[in-house]
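Exercise: predict the fold of this chain.
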Amino acid sequence: MAWVGTPKAWYMPPDMRLKVCRDLELESNDLQDQIVSDPCRNLIFRAARRVGKSYTISKRHFPMYLAPKSMHWIIGPTYDLAEKEFRYVLDFFRRFATKQGMPFKEMVPRYRHVPENGDLLIETSWGAKIIGKSATNMYSLVGEACDSVMLCEAAQLSRAVWERYVRPTLSTREGFASFGSTPDSAGEWLYQLEMQAQGLQDWKVYTQAAWECAHYPPGEVEAARRDLSEDAFYEQYGGEWRFYAGRVYKLFRRDVHVVKPFPIPASWKIVAGTDWGTRDPTACLWGAISPTGELYWMGEYYVADSEFSTEDHARAMLREEERLGIAGRPVRIADHHGLGTQLIISANKAGFKTVPCRSEDRKSRRDAALSAYTVRANQHPYHIREAGLPPGDYPKVFLFEGACPNYERELQFLTWREGMRKEGAMNDTKGDDHAVDCGEYVCEYFNVGLAGRFRRAVSSYKPKAVFDQTGYYLLTR
């Protein structure tokens, strides 16, 4: 067997991993082959129910179990939920013994498969050990150094399982981790982990919807679409994160609103929304508005540091504008009312100048942003036109993938306080809304997704319409 690395970091090359699975004649497809052969240390496979998540990550880890004297865990919310992956692994060992022409009992001299007693164990003749564990007993996750860990139905686990127990066990051996899961409303921590993982070399996220899976019966997906609410359908059959219990921005969908970054044309208007904080984070969003009115968010500043002065934040944001290549271009909008006034004066002195948002009414600003996120028929946004695709159902606001992770998080998790949707109630919410406020300032100020408003003037000259930074069309000579 071809191994590279030290005894602390046994590692089978990607092509050899794939060869092992093919030698065992395991069913596969292109996506599963990608996952099995991906060299990254940490991999999340988020997908719909019944598309083969358990089978796929079990295939990814099986070649790791051929490393001598290695230690591996399979962790589920309960032993029953860890047993499925364990059962696949046990079957792979039986196949491997047959392929090697070796009695199974000789290859695996010791194994126990009794999930109801919390007893899932495989020990090989070369000293590899695979143990099934339940997260209900967190103390069982302490003490050992692991070469790999599978986290089954990861969204149903807690953040503490990964951060306090599992991740430290992987450090000394530079071990691998795979997270297999269908989205779940309790899985906010896993969603946030995905957001943090974007752009990191040692992390990869794969997704698969039910309609992309060949073994689903014809018509079953459409039957589920008919029978379920939109949110439940896209969560369970689309494999999408849908934190929909009381969500304010229920309209936000990653598959619709998040797009691949592209170079912003020099003629586009560059805008920014800013929300100043002292104990709360200071946030800023930078975007670009196309000539046809689409807003593309392309950058974010989001820092909570009580030792930072307003001037420190202002200078840091100016540096970020230089990094984005938009220095001197943004029209910056902020709330100039109340406590924010003094902070804005301090920022102006540091060179970060803003203009007041259009309204003190939070509901007005939020309605403007919700309108921009609404999908409408027969829209032809810039990135769709450039791809040569026809008009379709699209919103007026988009986020560059990986550019605004905190804004994405807030759009997913901002919820109404109980009773606050009632007529006449205060427009109150719970959850972070610092980046959301930035987005709302800009959407209202520039009428993103709304019909243009006109100022009429009497003139003896033929008027000409021009667009200025206030968001109005002006009639000039």
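Check your answer against the key: The two ends are 81 Å apart (CA to CA).
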